[in-house]
Amino acid sequence: MSVTATPLDRRPGATAAVRASAPRRRRRAGLVPTAVLLLGAAYCLLPVAWVLVASTKSSRELFSTFTFLPGTGLADNLSALSAYRDGVYWRWMLNSLFYAGFGALLSTAVSAISGYALAKYRFRGREAIFNVLLTGVLMPPVILAIPQYLLMAKAGLADSYLSVLLPSVLAPYGIYLARIYAAAAVPDEVVEAARVDGAREWRIFRTVALPVMLPGLVTVFLFQFVAIWNNFLLPFIMLGDDEKFPVTLGLFTLLQQGASAPALYTLVITGAMLAIMPLIALFLVIQRFWSLDLLSGAVKS
Amino acid sequence: MNKRLVAAFAAAALSTTLLAGCGSSDDGGDGDKAESGPVSLTYWAWAPGLDKVAAIWNAGPGKEAGITVTVKKQASGDDLVTKIITASKAHKAPDLVQAEFQALPTLVSNDVLADISGQAGDTKKDFAEGVWQQVTLGSDAVYAIPQDTGPLMFYYRQDLFTKYGLSVPTTWDEFAATARALKKKDPKKALTTFSATDPGLFAGLSQQAGAKWWTTGGDKWNVAIDDAASTKVADFWGGLVEEGAIDNQPMYTPAWNKALNTGTQIAWVSAVWAPGVLTTAAPDTKGKWAMAPLPQWTAGDQVTGSWGGSTTGVSNDSTHKDAAVEFATWLNTDPEAVAALVKNGGIYPAATAAQTGDALAQAPEFFANQPDFYTKAAEIAKTTAPGAWGPNVNVAYSAFKDAFGKAAQDKAGFGPALGTVQSTTVADMKKQGFPVAE
C-alpha cells in the first residue's frame, strides 16, 4: 500500500502541504488501500455469492432469470441432490470430511514433530533434510500423483481410503511452516531450562513446545484441511470406486456425463454450495486460535 | 490396419512411455483362468443409469451364469482415458470400461483393451458395418462391443422458422443462405453457433464431407486432418463466423443454454441424443423443435457423420474375460438390456435391431410434436460415414480447442488453425514413436 502513498509525497512542494494537513493525508492514504481491499473482497466474494444465489434457482430459472435474483427452487434442489443415486452425495461429503479431517490432523502431527526437531536439534544432515523438504514445497503435488498411484498399486493399496490419506500426511509446506514457527516461538532458553529441570525430550516437546506452537499448528491444519478438501487429481487417479470418492470428484462425475447426457448444473451448484459450508464453519471456529497468535507474540519479548 | 501393426504400435508406445519402466509385467493377467464359481466384475462407465441396467443383469441372466457386475460411475471424456491407461500400467484396470469410439486406438496402443474376437466374433451381425469397423480398427481383432452411436442431424425451431419465413436447408449452401437471411431479418438472432470447444462435432462434420483423419498404409500412419474435405468444412464455418452470419460462442455454457431457451439461436447441428440435452438446456422450448437430416454438400446425397457414441471394452487386466464379454454382449444386444439403456441412460443404441425396436417406438417427450422421430433417426443412422480414428485423438482434440478457439474469437479464418491441429498431432505421434508417413 505504501506504493500508492509514495507518489503523493514526491510532488514538488508537497512536504509543506503534507505537514500542514498530516491527519487528513493519513485518512486519504487509508482510503485507497481500503478501496483496493474492498475491490479484492468483491472479486473473491462475487463467485461465492453467485453460487449461493444460483443454488436457490430451479433448473428452469437458472439461466433465464436475472443472475442475482434468488430463485424458488432451493428446497427442490436439496431434495433432488439427496435423492440422486440414493444420496450418494452425502456419502461423498462424509468421505471428504474423513480425508480432510483425518489427513489434516495426521499431517499436522507429523509437521509439528518434524518442524520442532528441525528447529531445535542440531544434527548432521539437518540442512540437507530441510533443503529436500524445501524442494518438496516447490514441487506441485500434481506431478506426483501418477508416481504415487503406481507405488500404491504396487503396495496393493490403490482404490482404497488409505491411498488418498497416506500421500496427504507428509506436507512439506506444513513442516516448513512448523519449523519456522518453532524457531521463532519456542525460546531455546525455555527448552534448556526444562532440560536442566530433568524433563525428557518428549515431555519438553509435549508440555513446553506444543502449547506455544499451537497457533502455528492451527494454520498448518487449516492449510492442509483446505488443500485436501479441494484436492482433485490425487483422488481422481487413486480411486475407481465411486463410493470412496470425495465430493470434488463426485461433483465432477455429475458434470461430465458424456456429450449425450447434459450436465446436472443445478445439482452441481447446490452440491458446491453445500461443500463450501464446512470450510466456512471451520474458519469461523478456528479464528479464535489465531488471536492467540498475537498474545503469544506479546509474551515473548 | 492389420493385427501385427497394432501390436507394433503398442510396443512402440510402451517402450517410449516412461511409466512403463515402473510397472512390472510379472503379475500381468494372462487372461482366462478356468472359470468356476461366482465371478464378480467391475465396470467403469459414465452413462447415467448404467447401474440400474447392471442390476437387471445381476438379478436375471447374471444370477444364472454366476456373474455379478458392479458399476463404478466415472466422469466421461479424455480424463477417463488417462485414468484407465494409468490404472492399466499398474495392472489395476477394471474388467469392463466404457470407451468412446475415438478413444479405442489410444487404448489399444496402450495395451489396455483385450482382443475379444474369440468370444464376440458372432456379435458382428447385430451392428451396422460402419459401426463394427470402428471396434475392429480395420483388423481381424475385436476390441469392444458398440454401445451407442450419435449420427448427426439438424435441429431447428419449427415455430421460429415459420415466423421468419425460413425453409429447412438441405444443402450447406442453403444452410449459409438461411443463416444470412435470418441475420437480415433480425440481427439479434443467429441460426446457430460454431463452438470451438467441441472438436467432436467438427470431426463428425468432416467425416460427412469424406475426411479420414487417421488411416494406415504399409506400416505407417497417414494423418490427414487438413485434407481437402476437412479444409472445406473449416472454411465453410470459418467464413460464416467471419462474416458474422452465425455466433462464435462455445456450446454447453450457461450463455448457450440461455440463447437456446430464449430463441436467440434457432437451430442446432447436433446428434441423435440432442433431445436429452435440450430438455435441460432449453426447457421452455418443449415441443417447438423439429429434426431434419443434416444438410448435404451435394444436393441429393444422403451422408452424415457422428458425434459421440461409445463402446464397452474388456481390459487386458481382467481375469474373467469370457464372463466380461458375456455381459458386454448382453448389455448391448439383448432387447431388455437395450430398452433399459434407452430408458435410464438416454442413449441411442448402436445395435441395428434396437434402433427400430420397441424401446424407441415413441418419440422423445421433448419432441412429442414429431412422432416419427426415431423412424427418421434410424434412416439417418444408416447413412453414417465410418469414423477413422488414430492413437492420439485426445491430442488432436485439445490442439483443436486451442487453435480454433483463438480463431473463432478473432473471427479469423479456420484454415491456419486446421494446419496447426495437423502439425501438432503429427509431432505428438512422432514423439510417441509411431511411424508417420508425411
Automatic annotation (TrEMBL), chain A:
Pfam families reported in the protein's UniProt record: BPD_transp_1 (PF00528)
Gene3D superfamilies, alphabetized: MetI-like (1.10.3720.10)
Primary location: membrane
Compartmental location: Cell membrane
UniProt-listed CDD domains: TM_PBP2 (cd06261)
Annotated TM spans: 29-53, 97-118, 130-150, 170-187, 208-229, 263-286
Protein topology in the membrane: Multi-pass membrane protein
Biological process terms in GO annotation: transmembrane transport
UniProt entry keywords in alphabetical sequence: Cell membrane, Membrane, Sugar transport, Transmembrane, Transmembrane helix, Transport
Domain ABC transmembrane type-1: 93-286
Cellular component per GO, a single term: plasma membrane
Keyword Ion transport tagged: no
Family note: Belongs to the binding-protein-dependent transport system permease family.
Name of the protein: Multiple sugar transport system permease protein
Natural source organism: Actinacidiphila glaucinigra
TrEMBL record, chain B:
Protein name: Multiple sugar transport system substrate-binding protein
Keywords assigned by UniProt, alphabetized: Cell membrane, Lipoprotein, Membrane, Palmitate, Signal, Sugar transport, Transport
Gene3D superfamilies from the UniProt entry: Periplasmic binding protein-like II
Native source organism of the sequence: Actinacidiphila glaucinigra
A Pfam family recorded for this sequence: SBP_bac_1
Signal peptide: 1-20
